[in-house]
Amino acid sequence: MSQMRQQITEAAEALFADTPDWARLAEAGFPLLLVPEDVGGTGGGIGGDWGDAFAVLRVAGANALPHPLGEAMLAAHLLARADITQPPGLTVIGSGGGQWQGDRFTGWVAAVPWGRDADHVLAAIDTGADDPVMLLLPRPTTVTPGQSPAGEPRDRLDYVATSGLALGNADHSLYGAFLRTAQSSGALDAALTLAIDHVNARIQFGKPLSKLQAVQQSLAVLAQECAATAIAGAAAAQALDRGQGAMEMMAAKLRTNMAIHKGVALAHQVHGAIGFTQDYPLHRLTRRLMGWRSEFGGDRWAELLGAATMLETGQTLWTDITRRSDQ
């Protein structure tokens, strides 16, 4: 566990609750959380680990933070790992396709979080080869606005013979799945808190809703889904800090998707009609959760995780599972 995790988490809780703009987030250094202290430009990064990132992104999810913090954090980490100086302004991540010839890119990057505001995009581009090529791209030729279920920007960026920088063959989908696991864990916890507060305050049939057995059962199941997501995400963070984590990230995203499917429905059920109104804060969490569920691979990790598992059989598979649980 990072020695500074509690301090970082407390700082995030204080700042994110105040709905800061991007300039304040950048000034506080959160986008450089996963960048070592001796790189990343003047003053370097924070030098946090993946456990720190999980803790901070849970706070972001709980506060429905309307900024691409996770995407910027991962982009900065990948650039630092490739020994590339962090460019000025906002850099986010994305995926797309097209042709990379020389140092010129012609193609597209789809559903980029805050693509219209980004100064650079670090994109995994499918060029028809076996592995995507990772490109650092400047502002696009054209932007086609789009949005997530929560109304946040998810824009298509098109490039025509645009100069870029190649980082080699790589993909960030698994890391992106980890980001969404962390954010979803925080948002589910916040939805549970709203649900508990509501049923304790709401009187029905002469007593609080919290006294009804069916409501208690729903809250218990919702709490289980929250706990499962938090544990899966924490296990993935620990594996990443050991230099591993592919299987754990796939499993965590799948378990998170299951929790979102069940948890969002339960949170709205116990709230009744009020949970669907615009002036009640539940929708700020659940709309983001439904969008995050399909991002960075969605449920396709089930197929990939199954394929990876099929490579191991019998005692080998059991040994690998228990080895991971003991670490």
How would you characterize this protein structure?
This protein has 327 residues and is an alpha+beta fold. The protein folds into three domains: 5-81, no CATH class; 91-169, Butyryl-CoA Dehydrogenase, subunit A, domain 2 (Beta Barrel), CATH 2.40.110.10; 173-326, Up-down Bundle (Butyryl-CoA Dehydrogenase, subunit A, domain 3), CATH 1.20.140.10. The chain is 50% helix and 17% strand. It is built from ten helices and nine strands. The strands form two sheets. A seven-stranded mixed β-sheet has the order 5-6-2-1-3-4-7. A two-stranded antiparallel ribbon has the order 8-9. The longest helix has 29 residues, at 173-201. The model has no long low-confidence stretch (mean pLDDT 92). InterPro entries: AcylCo_DH-like_C (IPR036250), AcylCo_DH/oxidase_C (IPR009075), AcylCoA_DH/ox_N_sf (IPR037069). Residues 179-291 form the Acyl-CoA dehydrogenase/oxidase C-terminal domain. It comes from Sandarakinorhabdus glacialis. This is Acyl-CoA dehydrogenase.
Structural descriptors:
flavin adenine dinucleotide binding; AcylCo_DH/oxidase_C; Butyryl-CoA Dehydrogenase, subunit A, domain 2; two-stranded antiparallel ribbon; 3 domains; Acyl-CoA dehydrogenase; 327 residues; acyl-CoA dehydrogenase activity; Butyryl-CoA Dehydrogenase, subunit A, domain 3
